[in-house]
Amino acid sequence: MAALKLKKGASSHSAYNLRPTFSDVEERHTLAVLVANEAGVLARVIGLFSGRGYNIESLTVAEVDHEKQLSRITIVTTGTPQMIEQIKAQVGRIVAVYDVHDLTVEGPAVERELALFKVTGTGDKRIEALRLAEIFRANVVDSTLDSFVFEITGDVGKIDAFADLMRPIGLIEMARTGVAALSRGPE
């Protein structure tokens, strides 16, 4: 019986053993979804996530065009590339959804978050809180004799780093808006 010779560079693997095109590694993605600004749309979009067991790390929603009655939902989620593709396809099929963009893969994007931090402390802790706020360019928006409320804007890493440094000083409460994001460039 003659042996089958393979051409140079050809693989002896079966077609059934081809590697999948998607990775099993979970990635963080920021999705921008343009929707009709009407009752129940947000519930339908979020219901899709919860119904399929997808986690939402951040969610922001606001009207972006009053005349056309459009809102923008910015969702930060994690999943494998295959899961993210499924999410985008399923969200895009919702009737009131006009557009779905994955800002993570479409090119450079700007992401920002606003946070408020209530920090208590007197003496050296108060001085340290003010010093750190200055370094992070946080604004004092409220002050009493034994507490501050700081306002800080930046990427998620900056907000997390500020929180980590304020905890031992006296961070007692925090409120975060969630991520707002736009793609960079003219389009």
TrEMBL record:
Q: What is this protein called?
A: Acetolactate synthase small subunit
* UniProt KW Chloroplast keyword: no
* EC assignment: 2.2.1.6
PANTHER family cross-referenced by the UniProt entry: ACETOLACTATE SYNTHASE SMALL SUBUNIT, ACETOLACTATE SYNTHASE SMALL SUBUNIT 1, CHLOROPLASTIC
Spell out the InterPro entries in the cross-references.
Acetalactate_synth_ssu, Acetolactate_synth/TF_NikR_C, Acetolactate_synth_ssu_C, ACT-like_dom_sf, ACT_dom, AHAS_ACT, AHAS_small-like_ACT
Any idea which UniProt keywords this protein has?
Amino-acid biosynthesis, Branched-chain amino acid biosynthesis, Transferase
What's the catalysed reaction?
Answer: 2 pyruvate + H(+) = (2S)-2-acetolactate + CO2
Gene3D superfamilies in the cross-refs:
3.30.70.260, ACT-like. Chain A, domain 2
> What is its pathway?
Amino-acid biosynthesis; L-valine biosynthesis; L-valine from pyruvate: step 1/4; Amino-acid biosynthesis; L-isoleucine biosynthesis; L-isoleucine from 2-oxobutanoate: step 1/4
Q: Which gene encodes it?
A: ilvH
